[in-house]
């Protein structure tokens, strides 16, 4: 019997309309865990680098995390993986909500889509019954609207629906997949779903999911719940409110937006507004939020209330979480009322809340600087908010200039030319980032921005405080109950970290320490992404309930795979390296690993080179960021090095087995 | 008829506090698995969150006695501007709706307040306090009537679903097969 996972994937060939239930190999789970890990293995095995994002040969995989559907609190994420039209690299965006557990209860760990449907369809999975159904009547419908219509049509109020809106149908490069209160937004995976002709995947499951060692597993879950309660009563002192508690940042609950609005850049990631947050604004925004918000809500089996139901007067209700609350507002230099209204439309259209507002602000900037002209925006309203609504419509419909803007600032600027590229200035690997620009280089963030395969800063940070605490006493206090550290040396790094003086940024933490910190933070995120655990209870906040010391126990007791910290660390490293290998095979190199050029005012090029060199070395990558044959062999990824050598990515000499050489030398 | 003290066990439900996470369903189905906690399947849960997020309806309901399909409670209620079907409040395991029936057999499920535990586990797992456990002593008049046991409840459901004749035929058939 398989535990925690079902042992079956659903393989759907949309070109032929063929549906298969395929048993998976438990050995693969042991090596790659599940979720992102096994998704990456499938992509490596079946999507060679020649395959374009919009090719029928590109796979679109919806993977439930290994522990989704078990009672593990907050474990509910669907990891969607494909080749991104935006970056041409692997995208592995994730969504919380209710979809992944439902898929497990239906009896599957993944839905693997290949081919392309000639007509718009949706997929209906009800336990053993799986159908591809006509969706032509849903063309152009909003993502939330679609979910409601399908549930009515099937008379299945309990079904969970992951759907795309018009942006996905029209292959907007930053189209998202929406699922009730959550969305998989980054990397344009909604565009791939649209390209495959799939409007929605609908799931309803009523099957059992087994646990290997039940009592032990429940004991662990109860420990986590107790710890969550403890942390609710003991927020971390000395850090800003969004970092003091657990969950993803409680943007729907928090009214004080001084930090975000005054530290993040407005418009096309251009302007910082010091002194913006006045009493008047605070009062106005609080009222807007209080009126709009009907309830704070959660994802499956999670007590954190990171999301909210939002009802703006005259607009259909939708659900929101986290930072989209501010992105449109700040992109347009407007207020929260506008932000919540346009986000309703954007959610129905299904676009990424980071990229969409920045692309729109970029278009306005090009117009204001004469690179685009009024003729490029026929019929555009005069008022600021009206212009943003107009641009959103043009983009998701790919009409006029919207057709270029739908490809994101990087590709749009290339096409527009005439100096437009100077304005696409907030990208990493061709994707718009959070508009956060600061004064001096932060070496930890430099590494995360540059080398993060997820290409999204908020998806790697966590665990280690973002800045030193002002006094040594406060730091010593912080490390006292810091049980989450993999090793006590991290406590010392933090205790010695000063705001000013010798032990301050950018030369402290030292290069070696920075690599160590980033490696730990990244490891935790990769473990979450395989288990389907929300980062909000694990890799993202300080002192979370899940960590490297209890995760192996969860995997052992839940999935019945004997696990310890070392083995888990090795597994995470294995599929992390595999994710990189996929991107390396698609051409990614050191030259691509850099934050936006003007992210920090004060840069330290020499230090940055040292950081990259040292991090690559720690990871077992060569100077160009390519995993070496030796490190691949250590991870049991010989098939990757063979492929690299065959393609000339690694030289022949790098394949040589050093132990064999040594033996030969000794023999002589 | 006699009178005696009885402990009334109740789960108080505050729908305003429900965050819709369904942790109650998760732990309920896990607790009632055989062996305990060995599997999870909210479709077997004896508590269900009836929810319709876009209309802001979140109503946790736990399974009570069995009711026949002809139940007259089909009214609509409007509370705080939201419309509820009366079924949303009813604890009955009833043949006309999906909740509180075993997914494979269709047999009714009933809340047992997690017998043997200090409090029902759904209450323990509801960290947002939408569920609270109440226990009170009450003087009750006990009618001298046997409460139906599980087999009876099950049989009654089957009779309601398939008719008595069909059920008798099946039993006869099964008896023949076994002999």
Q: How many beta strands in the DSSP annotation of chain B? A: 7
Largest interface: A-B, 43 and 31 residues
Total tally of structural domains of chain A:
3
Q: Roughly how many Å is the radius of gyration of chain A? A: 24 Å
| Main beta sheet of chain A | 6 strands, mixed
Q: How are the strands of the biggest sheet of chain B laid out side by side?
A: 1-7
CATH class of the largest domain in chain A: Mainly Alpha
| Rounded mean pLDDT score of chain B | 88
Q: Which ranges of chain A are low-confidence, i.e. pLDDT below 50, for 5 or more consecutive residues?
A: 656-668
CATH architecture of the largest domain in chain A: Orthogonal Bundle
Shape of chain B: globular
Q: Segments of chain B where pLDDT lies below 50 for 5+ residues?
A: none
CATH homolog superfamily of the largest domain in chain A: Aldehyde Ferredoxin Oxidoreductase Protein, subunit A, domain 3
How would you name the oligomeric state of the polypeptide chains in this document?
heterodimer
Share of helix of chain A, binned: 40-55%
**Alpha-beta classification of chain A:** alpha+beta
For the sheet with most strands of chain B, the description reads: 2 strands, antiparallel
In what range is the share of β-strand residues of chain A?
5-15%
> Would you list the SSEs of chain B in sequence order as H and E?
EHEEEEEHEHH
